[in-house]
Amino acid sequence: MEEYVFPNNWYIEITDENKEVLNAWKINQFYSKSIDSYDPPIKYINNLGASANGWGRMTNEITFDEFKKYVLGYEIIKEPANQDYTYLIDMLNK
User: Fold this and answer.
1) What is the distance between the alpha carbons of residues 47 and 7, in angstroms, rounded to a whole number?
2) How far, in Å, CA of 43 to CA of 46, rounded?
């Protein structure tokens, strides 16, 4: 199986879910202008913190999980869907 290599040139879509985290990262990059200060608003930023509207879409789009893992260094822990934790209720009540 081929090992995943994180791209050097990437962009990410700005969403309501990730905007605050992306902005906190962006203001510490070379292009440090806040996401909210663009007119018209930007929808994408690239690996330099620049607006990636238009030309930036020619590079590699990454997900928010990839951003958190490879750019911010967070450990991503995903729990299986539909986990049943009801067994813990009896255990915790003891």
Assistant:
1) 10
2) 11
Q: pLDDT tens-digit profile of 19-31?
A: 999 999 999 999 9
Residue matched to tokens 């608003």: 41
Q: Considering only 15-19, 42-46, 84-88, which range has the smallest mean pLDDT?
A: 84-88
Characterize 65-81 residue by residue with b for buried, 16 or more Cβ atoms within 10 angstroms of its Cβ, and e for exposed.
ebbbeebeeeeeeeeee
Domains in the chain: boundaries: 10-93
| Rounded alpha-carbon distances, angstroms, from residue 65 to 32, 69, 75 | 22, 6, 9
The pairing of beta strand 10-13 with beta strand 44-46: antiparallel
Q: Does the global pTM surpass 0.85?
A: no
Backbone angles phi, psi at 82, to 5 degrees: 60, 40
| β pairing state of 10-13 and 60-61 | parallel
